[in-house]
Design brief:
heterotrimer, A mainly alpha, B mainly alpha, C alpha+beta, B: Cytochrome C Oxidase, Chain A, 2 strands, 59% helix, globular, disordered N terminus, disordered C terminus, C: alpha+beta, Immunoglobulin-like, six-stranded mixed sheet, five-stranded mixed sheet, 37% helix
């Protein structure tokens, strides 16, 4: 459970820093006036949506930190037999990174007002994200063919569980991206799409980051890294 | 988990136009269905949440009657065998903790009060908010469907510990456990949708002048609890998914090698303790997810009805935030005798007892708010006082169970049952009643009948105390919890039967009294005294709406502007004994000042 | 106004109930009187706090109730008072925590001279295994469980052959000798609880948990399962008999060893 505690420590630190800036030490009964010393919230639609996404990403982060915590606890028991990673995972990782990159170019194009670049980036991002999901399914098939069944070992079970959870989040993102794309195809102006694309891009980057952490875990890099650090220290 | 936040802002989010007070980009219901059924208005959603939670709560109430009848008169009800008993305790516990308390405080009070108390027109994502309620409703219906699937609902206890939860000798092992887990996952998804709304609305939806430290404590409690719930519920989600895998797909996340009725089960190597960690990582914050909104609401009830500012507002805010943060590092105090590494006991006992300090400070501050107050014994005030007494009692017995070695003889006995019912059952529910008596006039425009309210209070408070206070002593004696019947046991004297009958009679009476409350809710809708906009002469914004009940959009043409904190009661020199938050001016006795002229 | 009186009566009633209650700890039969002491300390401290706060609350309600013309004071906070209350509470909490942790340290450290006794929980009965002449328990695993080997003792472990197995009977313990209970479960989570011993610990399938105690009083005590383990949970009872050493040895001599249990199966297979 140490990982989730580290994650929560970060969240708590951010929250406390914010509370501090918002004047948690102020004595409100001494401050009668139009606006207090502290800035009012910015209720513009863009800001609200961004804050909403940030909060949602914290929830997603908590979900994955807990899954990884459970993984580490279960992996420390005797019957763990690591999964041989199918090579296609590396291709999938590259595809997901490309997807993230494409969406970032779309975002930058939208900021510039470049409708063509935005369209190209958006479509590429959607296509590569679908490709990533297909690739993950292929990885499942490959593992299954090699005899790594879900129920035979907890390492297999965790592999399927973690990739499924991550894939579900990518699929959810695709639904939102699909909606933005649909609006674009219906002729929405670049300015109207800018916010949606920006949010999708942030979400994509977060999912890429989470995937890299999960990949490091599944291929046991994290474990090796920790072991190396321990050796260096002793 | 459902992807909820990206894409463009949902139509209906109040845009930047909100602050100009001009034409609003607000969602407008077009028909009866979109106004009252698929409504995106947080006030309607709050009522939907509240009514659904109360309806399912009634089921839990009936279940508790059946359990108490079995404990006092074993075998009285022929249909109530051990299978049913365990199914009933499981459903009762799960309904009360998750589907009633969490939903009512956050979905009910949260939805109604957050926009109104902060001076917003609605939640930030109204469409998502509507979806949240409907997913919750489906989760509730699925939970109830457990009664009708083959084998009935799960009887694993609300903690759902594996391996027992999915073993053949546990009732509801066929379908009940699956239905329960899926229902919980749906609840979490629905809650996440609502929770994002509550948090973002507090972060971004506050009106001009509403700084954090001007927010009423109700909002602080609901806000902090929501943040905690958003971070803690994923633990239950992950645990539920993994248990579904174990149950349906034969994995061994939680399932070690076991022998069931002489046969080796097809599992190996899993860790039941892992589930307990995940469960309590959600389960302990859950206690505070229920408690913090109650803390907040009770602070406002006491302050308003004692006509005095809440004592030590800053300490109250800090305590809420600190309790919220600390509650994530105390979960394993539910597991002192679970067989986990006993060395953890030192750490978790220490953190658990540290959390008692901010909690105690809150209690002191409630009492000190009454000191030199002008106390009106209204019905909400009575319920708030009932809360203080039951919460002190339940909080103090928490010091027994949190202190690792003291927990050893008491854990898994009736002492635990008595403790958590007092602190997490009776106390928050008294606050819910207090809150309903307090805000019903705003919701409906009419007062609840105070005579019925007082009868309701006295029987509920004294009756509940009579049920749960003596119950501690059964635990000290060594009577275990979750026993369908005690039978003849050497160390249990015959007088325990008498005590059990006493507690059951009290439970039946308290339960029946709740019907009086429901009657009052319905009757006062038409026959209650007209309330006016601000019957309690309160300072917070929800009482300053132009219409009562507040119209769609809450505030008419212009949003309120906040000039002061939420607790300007009995300000020296002011003509009235309260100054609403939206009354400008620094010096209340300045001539021509709205306060001096008695603005309401 | 009546509420002030009722709250005072609630305090008086609770204290009276506490003093007059016939329901209290069973007479102790182990060395864990320390636990009773920590419970008593906690009772005194929390009881005093409960009475003080609620009585003060009742006084406030009486004294500051609304009367015509009355106006509340305006007092946003009082830093000194709050600080002192925090310090006082912290001291009270520490006074409960410190002895608790000291006793816990004792509770989890098994003394070197304690004999091991294994308790195995299974829906819904208790079985026991005591070390044989070699004084050691053999290895065991749930996967070795079969009709002739109900506790899953490793048949290849020589230390396990002379282990004494008690199935469905009573557990006898010698008075005054420390004993470490090693707890194992074959199916659900169980919990071996003897109220007179005060101690308890869950038994988790797949691992061995433990606690230790020294029986201090002879007699026969009822065992209960204290963790929900399926529909038969309330019927999962057993008996522990604490007796003088000589009686204990006599009882021990009558019990079957693992080897003896296996033997009839072998002879029966011959004809």
């Amino acid at each position: 459970m140490s990982l989730i505690l580290i994650f929560l420590a970060v969240v708590v630190a951010i929250a406390f820093g914010w509370l501090w800036r918002q004047g948690i030490l102020a004595k409100p009964w001494l401050e009668t006036g139009v606006v207090g010393r502290f800035p009012a919230a910015d209720p513009s639609g863009a800001r609200v949506a961004k804050v909403g996404l940030a909060v949602f990403l914290a929830v997603v982060g908590s979900l994955f930190a807990l899954t990884v915590s459970a993984y580490l606890m279960r992996a420390s028991l005797g019957d763990w037999e690591a999964v041989r990673m199918p090579g296609i995972l590396w291709v999938n990782t590259g595809v997901l990174a490309l997807s993230s990159l494409a969406l970032e170019t779309a975002r930058l194009a939208a900021v510039r007002g470049d409708a063509e670049g935005m369209r190209a980036g958006l479509l590429a991002a959607g296509a590569t994200a679908v490709l990533f999901l297909v690739g993950q399914l292929l990885a499942w098939r490959q593992l299954h063919a090699e005899g790594y069944y879900l129920a035979t070992n907890p390492a297999n079970a965790f592999f399927y569980l973690i990739t499924a959870l991550h894939g579900a989040h990518v699929a959810g993102g695709l639904a939102a991206l699909g909606r933005v794309t649909w609006r674009m195809e219906r002729g929405a102006a670049v300015a109207q799409l800018r916010l949606g694309i920006g949010l999708c891009a942030t979400y994509w980057h977060a999912l890429l980051l989470i995937w890299l952490v999960l990949l490091g875990l599944l291929t046991n890099w994290v474990g090796d890294f920790v072991a190396v650090c321990r050796q260096l220290l002793t | 988990m459902v992807d909820v936040t990206h894409g463009e802002p949902v139509p209906g989010v109040p845009g930047s136009a909100a602050h100009e007070g001009g034409e609003l980009d607000l969602y407008h219901p077009k028909s009866w269905v979109t106004k009252y059924v698929f409504s995106q208005d947080a006030k309607v959603i709050a009522i939907q949440y509240g009514l659904t939670a109360m309806a399912i709560g009634l089921v839990a109430l009936v279940l508790s009657w059946l359990m108490r009848l079995q404990l006092a008169f074993p075998g009285l009800l022929p249909f109530l065998d051990a299978d049913h008993y365990y199914q009933f305790i499981t459903m009762h516990g799960m309904i009360m903790v998750v589907y009633l308390l969490t939903a009512l405080f956050l979905g009910g009070f949260g939805n109604y009060l957050i926009p109104l108390m902060l001076g917003a027109r609605d939640m930030m994502f109204p469409y998502l908010n509507m979806l949240s309620y409907w997913v919750y409703l489906v989760a509730v219906l699925l939970l109830v469907s457990g009664f009708f699937v083959p084998g009935g609902p799960t009887g694993a206890g609300w903690t759902l510990y594996p391996p027992q939860a999915i073993l053949a000798n546990t009732p509801g092992q066929q379908w009940g456990i699956i239905v329960m887990l899926v229902s919980l996952m749906l609840f979490i998804i629905g809650f996440t949708m609502g929770g994002l709304n509550y948090v973002v609305t507090v972060l971004q939806g506050r009106t001009r002048g509403m700084t954090l430290m001007r927010m009423p404590l109700t909002i602080w409690g609901i806000f902090t609890a929501t943040v905690m719930a958003l971070l803690a519920f994923p633990a239950l989600f992950v645990g539920s998914v993994m248990m579904l895998f174990d149950r349906g797909l034969g994995t061994s996340f939680f399932m070690p090698a076991i022998v069931v009725t002489g046969e080796q089960a097809p599992y190996a190597g899993g860790s039941p303790i892992l589930f307990q960690h995940l469960f309590w990582f959600f389960g302990h914050p859950e206690v505070y997810i229920v408690a913090l909104p109650a803390f907040g609401i009770v602070s406002d009830l006491i302050s308003t009805h004692a006509r005095k500012n809440i004592f030590g507002y800053r300490m109250m805010v800090w305590a809420i935030v600190i309790i919220g943060a600390l509650s994530f590092v105390v979960w394993a105090h539910h597991m002192y005798v679970s067989g986990m590494n006993p060395g953890f006991g030192f750490f978790f006992a220490t953190t658990t007892l540290i959390i008692a300090v901010p909690t105690a400070l809150k209690v002191y501050n409630w009492v000190l708010t009454l000191w030199r107050g002008d106390i009106h014994f209204t019905v909400p005030m009575l319920f708030a006082l009932g809360f203080i007494v039951t919460f002190i009692n339940g909080g103090l017995t928490g010091l027994f169970l949190g202190n690792v070695v003291v927990d050893v003889p008491l854990s898994d006995t009736m002492f635990v049952v008595a403790h958590f019912h007092m602190v997490m059952g009776v106390a928050p529910i008294l606050v819910i009643f207090g809150g309903l008596y307090h805000w019903y006039p705003k919701i409906t425009g009419r007062m609840l009948n105070p005579t019925l309210g007082k009868i309701h209070f006295w029987i509920t408070f004294l009756g509940a105390y009579a049920i749960f206070f003596p119950m501690h002593y059964l635990g000290l004696l060594g009577v275990p919890r979750r026993y369908y019947e005690m039978g003849e046991t050497a160390f249990v004297p015959h007088s325990v039967v008498t005590l059990n009958i006493f507690m059951t009679v009290a439970a039946l009476v308290v339960g029946a009294t709740q019907m009086l409350f429901l009657f009052n809710l319905a009757w006062s809708l038409r026959h209650g005294r007209a309330a006016g906009g601000n019957p309690w002469r309160a300072t917070t914004l929800e009482w300053q709406t132009p219409e009562t009940p507040p119209a769609h959009g809450n505030w008419g043409a212009e949003l309120p502007v906040v000039y002061r904190w939420a607790y300007d009661y009995s300000v020296p020199g002011a003509a009235e004994d309260f100054v609403p938050q939206n009354v400008p001016g620094r010096d209340p006795d300045m001539p021509g000042h709205p306060v001096a002229e008695g603005a309401r | 106004m009546p509420i002030a009186i009722v709250l005072a009566l609630v305090v008086v009633g609770s204290v009276l109930f506490h003093l007059l209650s016939p329901w209290w700890f069973t007479p102790i039969a182990s060395n864990w009187g320390y636990i009773d002491d920590t419970v008593n300390i906690t009772f005194w401290i929390t009881g005093a706090v409960f009475a003080a706060v609620v009585l003060f609350l009742a006084y406030c309600l009486l004294r500051f109730r609304h009367r015509p013309g009355r106006r509340a004071a305006y007092e946003p906070e009082n830093k000194r008072l709050e600080t002192w209350l925090a310090i006082g509470t912290a001291i009270g909490v520490a006074a409960m925590l410190a002895p608790g942790l000291v006793v816990w340290a004792r509770f989890i450290r098994v003394p070197a001279d304690a004999t091991s006794v294994e308790v195995v929980g299974q829906q819904w009965q208790w079985a026991y295994r005591l070390p044989g002449k070699d004084g050691k328990l053999g290895a065991a695993d749930t996967r070795d469980v079969s009709d002739t080997n109900p506790l899953g003792i490793d048949p290849n472990d020589p230390r396990g052959r002379d282990d004494i197995i008690v199935q469905g009977g009573e557990l006898h313990l010698p008075v005054g000798k420390p004993v470490a209970l090693l707890l194992r479960s074959l199916d659900a989570v169980h919990d071996f609880f003897v109220p007179e011993f005060r101690a308890k610990m869950d038994m988790i399938p797949g691992s061995v948990t433990y606690y230790w105690l020294t029986p201090t009083r002879t007699g026969s005590f009822e065992v209960l399962c204290a963790e929900l383990c399926g529909v038969g949970h309330p019927y999962m009872r057993g008996t522990v008999v604490v007796e003088p050493e000589a009686d204990y040895q006599a009882w021990l001599a009558q019990q079957q060893t693992f080897e003896q249990m296996q033997a009839p199966a072998k002879t029966g297979a011959l004809p």
